[in-house]
Please model this.
Amino acid sequence: MKDRIRLTTLCSIAALSLALTACNQAPAPPPPDTHDADVKAIGDLETQWSKDYASRDAEKIVSYYADDAVLMTPGAEAIRGKDAIRAALKGMMADPAFSLTFQASKVDAAKTGDLGYSWGTYQLAVTDPATHKLIHDHGNYVTTYRKQADGSWKAVADIASSAVAPQPPPKHA
Model:
């Protein structure tokens, strides 16, 4: 009986020691700080993206968006998903007067390394489909980026806000 009690006591002490040792494990090291590299990557991506608009290549331009991205532009409903954004871009690219440039004023990224954003200004030229007159627009934008599994950054929310006041509807005689 004494041997059985000793064995039980010994097993209990061993189990307790293992449990306490497991609880005292050193915490996992924090993930590496990639903030500055992430900010630079997003800034470089934005600079190239703006340049790529001059190519008028909708496939190249849509490649900056995640599959589940949303694009919000002044005076239009939100465009959801990469395929819908592609179709909208192809329509815009068909306009010979189309031109878009943008410049980030601020780029930042979360310390977690998975989200980032930029905001800045844009300039846009398009032909008004109703009047066939050239429209010059300018304003501000905010773009939210998500880091992809391959380490690249893709836009998940791209929102533009025009600084040009909307025109009143034409008066009918």
